[in-house]
Amino acid sequence: MVMKIFLPMLLLGLFSGAVHSQEAYMVVEAHSGKIFQAQNSAVKRPVASLTKICTGVVATDWALATGQDLKKVMANVPESITRVGGANPLNLQPGQTISLSDALYAALLGSDNLAAMTVADHIGRDINNRRGRSDDPVWAFVKEMNELARVLGMKNTRFLNPHGLELPKQEGYSTAADMAKLSVYAMRRPAFAFFVRQKSRTILVGGRSVAVNNTNQLIGEPGILGIKTGQTGPAGPCLATSMEKGPLVRNKPDGTKGATPRRMIVVLLSSPDRFGRTRGLLNSAWAQYDRWLDAGALIQDRNREILPVPKF
C-alpha cells in the first residue's frame, strides 16, 4: 500500500504565464506499459486540473491507510479558499462543512478548485496532528503529492497546490509522460477509479443538494473509465483518459488458456480538440496494440518502449 511509502510518519516560476500551444501526448497500455504514441511527452508545462488526479489519489490512499470513511468524515471549508479566486460553483463559504467524499466528487468530476483546497486542508491537518507538526495544512498535503510523484518516478513534476491553478509562486509543472505514469497508478486504485467514472453525482453542501456533472465528455462512451479534464490559459485544454476492453483470451503453448487484461491510457496536453483527439488516439493505439500482440508483443528497447510505473 503506497501510504507506507510516501506517508511513513503518518502511519507512525517555470512558465511566467506563457501559453504552451504545442500539443503534447502520451498513449500507453497500462498493464504492459507499452508506449504506442508520444509527442513532446517530456516537455515540462502546466497541467491545470490534471493536478487533481494526484489530489484524489493522496486523499483516497490516506483514507485507506488511516481507516477513514470518506463519506463520514466532515471537513470544514477553510478560510484559505478566499485566496484561490476563480469560479465557486458550489458557493462554498469558509466555515461550512462538507463530507470529504462530496468534496472529492466536486473536485474530480466538477473540477472545483475550492473543494480540492478543502480536501487538502482537512487531510493536511490530520497529517500534521499525527506528526506533531504545525505546518500549513494545505502545504503538508501538497508535500505528500510530491512524495507520491517521487516514488512513481515522475522526475519532471512539481506540484505546488492541490488544484492546478497557476497562482503567484504556485506555477506547478509536469509532462505528458509523468501524468501518464500517475494516471496508470491512479486507475489501479479502486477507490479513486470509482470517483472518476461517475457521470454525475448529487452532493450535499450548506444544507443544499447540488448536482455535479463530470466535465469529461467521454464518460458514458463504451469502455471509458475516466479520468480528468483540465484547462487554464497557460496549460490550454488538457485531458487524461482511461479506456478498457475485455480481457483477450488466447491459447498458451502448453494448451491452457490465458487472459490478457487491456487498458489504454491517453494523456493529452494543450489540445484545442481534446475529446476528438483523444478518441482518435485511442482508436489508432488499439489498432497498434492488436498488431503488436499478433507479432508476439516483442520489446527491443525497454527504456524507449516501456513506461515504468511501480506497483505498491
Description:
It is a single chain. The chain has 312 residues and is an alpha+beta fold. The chain has helices at 3-6, 8-11, 51-66, 100-108, 113-131, 137-151, 176-186, 190-196, 274-294, 302-305, and strands at 24-29, 35-39, 74-76, 97-99, 200-205, 208-213, 224-232, 236-251, 257-269. The strands form 3 sheets. The chain has a 5-stranded antiparallel β-sheet with strand order 2-1-9-8-7, with helices on both faces.
Helix content: 25-40%
CATH level 1 name: Alpha Beta
Number of strands: 9
Q: What structural class do helix, strand and pairing data support?
A: alpha+beta
Our count of domains comes out at: 1
Unreliable stretches (pLDDT < 50, length at least 5) are 1-19
Keywords:
disordered N terminus; globular; Beta-lactamase; 10 helices; 21% strand; 312 residues; alpha+beta
